[in-house]
UniProtKB/TrEMBL annotation:
Phosphorolytic 3'-5' exoribonuclease that plays an important role in tRNA 3'-end maturation. Removes nucleotide residues following the 3'-CCA terminus of tRNAs; can also add nucleotides to the ends of RNA molecules by using nucleoside diphosphates as substrates, but this may not be physiologically important. Probably plays a role in initiation of 16S rRNA degradation (leading to ribosome degradation) during starvation. Signal peptide: none annotated. It comes from Pseudooceanicola marinus. GO terms for biological process: rRNA 3'-end processing; rRNA catabolic process; tRNA processing. Homohexameric ring arranged as a trimer of dimers. It holds the Pfam family RNase_PH. The lineage of its organism: Bacteria, Pseudomonadati, Pseudomonadota, Alphaproteobacteria, Rhodobacterales. The gene is rph. Transmembrane segments: none annotated. It comes from the Bacteria. Keywords: Nucleotidyltransferase, RNA-binding, rRNA processing, Transferase, tRNA processing, tRNA-binding. One of its GO terms (molecular function) is 3'-5'-RNA exonuclease activity. This is Ribonuclease PH. Belongs to the RNase PH family.
């Protein structure tokens, strides 16, 4: 029934390769099927002005898609002189999702910026960015702890994200582009590894959905995040 032949509750193959860049304090390449995202973490001894002197740390994010990450070439946003609305919305989502899983007191007054660059897109780029972004963040924090700059781990539970939707009348997990482009209902679920909700983005894309269908999608999302959290833990402990 699904274009990929997957079961309704089956994720695409997921892999996370760490240490893929030389200079970043934390980095990984996450592949979720044919969606590939490079995630890097940069530690800086500063915070935004509105929390300066508070003792609190800050985590923020930037997101971008390379010109040939899609089937036809996209113009670089730098060439257009500004970021698009979609880019701004996604990077804000990544930033606040990752911050929700951080003990900012334990992090201390420093900023970690997560850069998410989409190399190849086939649906679910924001979810892959959040999932890979947490791995890059965890690796950067581990360096701070190893150096003695952070005493207690501010990241005790993974943060991961997965898409779910109603495709051809059926609830499905982890939409790829052919499904995403035709789904009647599309949603992104951001959770902790212990299944606590951080954010849910749900919208009808052509057909309304019931409370029962919403519950079915929540169940699928929990299954997906549980699988992703195990992959994240294996990546950072490798």
């Amino acid at each position: 029934m699904r274009p990929s032949g997957r079961d309704l509750s089956e994720m695409r193959p997921v892999s996370i390769e760490t240490g893929v860049t030389k200079h970043a304090e934390g980095s990984c390449l996450i592949k979720v099927g044919d969606t590939h995202v490079m995630c890097t973490a940069t530690i800086e001894p500063r915070v935004p002005p509105f929390i300066k002197g508070s003792g609190l740390g800050w985590v923020t994010a930037e997101y971008g898609m390379l010109p040939r990450s899609t089937t036809s070439r996209m113009r670089r946003e730098a060439a257009m002189g500004k970021q698009g609305g979609r880019t701004i919305e996604i990077q804000r989502l990544i930033g606040r999702s990752l911050r929700a899983g951080v003990d900012r007191v334990a992090l201390g007054e420093r900023q970690i910026t997560i850069d998410c660059d989409v190399i190849q897109a086939d649906g679910g780029t924001r979810c892959a960015s959040i999932t890979g972004g947490w791995v890059a963040l965890k690796l950067a924090v581990s360096k701070l702890m190893k150096a003695g700059d952070v005493i207690s781990d501010p990241l005790t539970d993974p943060v991961a994200a997965v898409s779910c939707g109603i495709y051809a009348g059926q609830p499905v997990l982890d939409l790829d582009y052919p499904e995403d482009s035709e789904a009647g209902v599309d949603g992104n679920f951001i959770m902790t590894g212990s299944k606590k909700l951080i954010e849910v983005q749900m919208s009808a894309e052509g057909s309304v959905f019931s409370r029962d269908q919403m519950n079915q999608l929540m169940d699928l999302a929990e299954k997906g995040v549980e699988e992703l959290a195990e992959i994240q833990k294996a990546a950072v402990n490798a």
